[in-house]
Amino acid sequence: MNLSDINWDINTAGSWPIPIKIASMVLACVSVVGLGIYFDTMDQVAALEGARQNEQTLKADFEDKQKKSINLHDYKNQLTQIEASLAEMIRQMPTEEEIASLLVDISQTGLASGLEFKLFKPEAPVLRDFYSELPITIQVTGSYQELGLFVSGLASLPRIVTLHDVNIAPINTDGILLMKATVKTYNEGSELAAMSAEAKKKRGGH
Fold it and tell me: Does the structure show a pLDDT above 60 at 8?
């Protein structure tokens, strides 16, 4: 069969040889199936792949939530410990009414340690996120042992008192030192007070 002798006009397809007719029908069927796959099946394949990816995401989310649910008891215990620590911290903060007496306690601690105050200056409160810092600028003179007693005495006060920006230098040859520092105590802010009240409410509910 010489292909050059065939009239390839589609209108004369009825006169094509049998093998050519069969090949043409197979080609047409393949084209139709290919177009169907392209316009329909490919969209379904893409949707299936998206569903598979979503399935993996859901599985990971489920496993994460399952782990959290298993550790829920531990999380509750941690929350209880945090609330207890918060309550203890708040108890160690002076109230507004206690600030004046705390200032006296700080100065009395220095005097009882044998120090001499050159400066005792309460500064303006510094507002933080949940609390206020109440700084006090001090300058005291005394021996190394007396300064140590003073620092230990501050740590022993029933309210939170911390020492910052400490600078110690000798002022004579008799071992007398000058210490410049900032003493800080803390007062609960409105947000911290609200947290404390909520913690107390929860504990009372149990």
Answer: no
